[in-house]
Design a protein that fits this description.
The protein is α/β, with parallel strands linked by helices and 328 residues long. The chain folds into two domains: 111 residues, no CATH class; 166 residues, 2-Layer Sandwich (Nucleotidyltransferase, domain 5), CATH 3.30.420. Strands 1, 2, 3, 4, 5, 6 and 7 form a seven-stranded mixed beta sheet that branches. Helix 2 packs across helix 13, helix 5 crosses helix 7 and helix 8 packs parallel to helix 13. The longest helix has 26 residues. The two termini are 43 Å apart. 31% of the residues are buried.
Amino acid sequence: MYQLSLGDYQVNQNRRRTRTEIKLAGIDKIVNWAKLVELFSAIDKTDRYIGGRPRKEILMMTKALFIQHLYDLSDPELEEQLNDRISFQRFAGIGLDLKVPDHSTIWRFKESLLKHGLLRHLFEQILGDIESKGLILKKGTIVDATIIRSTNRPISRQKRVELETKPSSQIDRDAQSTRKNGKYYFGYKGHIGSDVGSKIIRKVRFTAANVHDINEFKNLVSGDESAVFGDKAYSDDSVKKELRQGEFYYGILSKGRRGRRLSKKQVRKNKQLSRIRAQVEHPFAYMKRLLNYEYARARTLIRNELRFIMSCTLYNVLRAGYLLRQNG
């Protein structure tokens, strides 16, 4: 493995920074890494009294996780890039005294995070960092969901029954089918509650695709906003009553029913609300186009959820950096 010499570091100090280095430096300014290291210390099994295999330096592994999902790298690709790219080594803090983690070490690190349920805590921790900078407006929340298709094939009910007794790690049993606009999709749904104005994601949920949007509604509302917006999938009389009793502005689009078409007033109001609701498309577009999160490649819900939560976290960090630059 090629190791940087002291001369290499000194020479590279004088060259112009790349766009990658600038982006990674922007992440450094937002994230409180010390708090994440403290959070992730739960997975460190090393003990000076009872022994145990030493774990790779937690900060380095955490930053490597950010690199992986920012640039859509597999575990072997991440290992290769960490060995090859100076910008990644600098960001991850890989100096001359540290060996680049191999792909199996990277995989075990992520499995440990999932086992201890730390990914959602990571999202909330960084959201707290962003909120402390005064970037979350709390004027309202926009709820929405997006379908993330699985790269695996749909399986029949009979096959699912067979897999109950003879499970296979090569088949995705967690993904489900749903229908939207006359088309069938097999995979998952990512649900978010986004802050009106700042577009920061405040709540995240990840489910199979057959879970109806309205079932996750309460999990996407923070409770400290003054209004809630959403498309027709969230139109429900009980939700309307509950929100209005809680003195929230009800901004869910009205939905026509059989034998009861929308009035002209409802149509006009839907158009007005749609202008606000459209803000929620920004984070989904960013995740799918720039983070390349079009498909769920893993074969379990929990591993696909890891990627969704990391995508939401990265979106929030980069969005927060943009807002800070705009505010001067």
